[in-house]
Amino acid sequence: MTEPLRIAIAGLGTVGAGVVRMLQSHRDLIAARAGRPIEIVAVSARSRHRDRGVDLSAYSWEDDPVALARRNDIDLVVEVIGGEDGPAKAVAETAIASGRSVVTANKALLARHGQALAEAAEANGVGLAFEAAVA
């Protein structure tokens, strides 16, 4: 069996919790389409105790989303924090600089910093995926 793609999710609002729910509910189908298992390793959000309607107990929790992006046990960061600067930008930049690919649905981030993030991703040999942000 191939190694799983290990992901971290930064932001657990409607979109982030939905990503977790989808990966949990459709694990086998997604693995078949991706050609390997997708494994959530860690998550981060502003509040650890908020009920998001999804079980997060199997995942490591990081209070600091930038620390999440630096973790050595992940391959990819899903950034769904939102906003063009602040934590969202820091997470994307840190993940890329740390050799992690980034998937984002953040239109504001891409509009403001997309070119710089794409150049950094290319320079670091990682991916920057954003199809969810451009509908």
Question: Which features characterize this protein?
Answer:
6 helices, six-stranded parallel β-sheet, 135 residues, alpha/beta, 44% helix, 6 strands, 19% strand
Structure characterization notes:
With 135 residues, this protein is α/β, with parallel strands linked by helices. Helix content is 44%, strand content 19%. The chain has six helices and six strands. It has helices at residues 14-25, 27-34, 65-70, 86-97, 107-124, 131-134; strands at residues 5-10, 38-44, 60-61, 76-79, 101-104, 128-129. The chain has a six-stranded parallel sheet with strand order 3-2-1-4-5-6, with helices on both faces.
- Biggest sheet: strand arrangement: 3-2-1-4-5-6
User: Multimeric state of these chains?
Assistant: single chain
Task: State the shape.
Answer: globular
Number of helices: 6
Biggest β-sheet description: 6 strands, parallel
Beta fraction: 15-25%
**What's the end-to-end separation, in Å?**
33 Å
Which bin fits the share of residues in helices?
40-55%
Order of helices and strands: EHHEEHEHEHEH
Average residue pLDDT:
93
Estimated radius of gyration: 14 Å
Low-confidence stretches: none
- DSSP, total strands: 6
Structural class by SSE content: alpha/beta
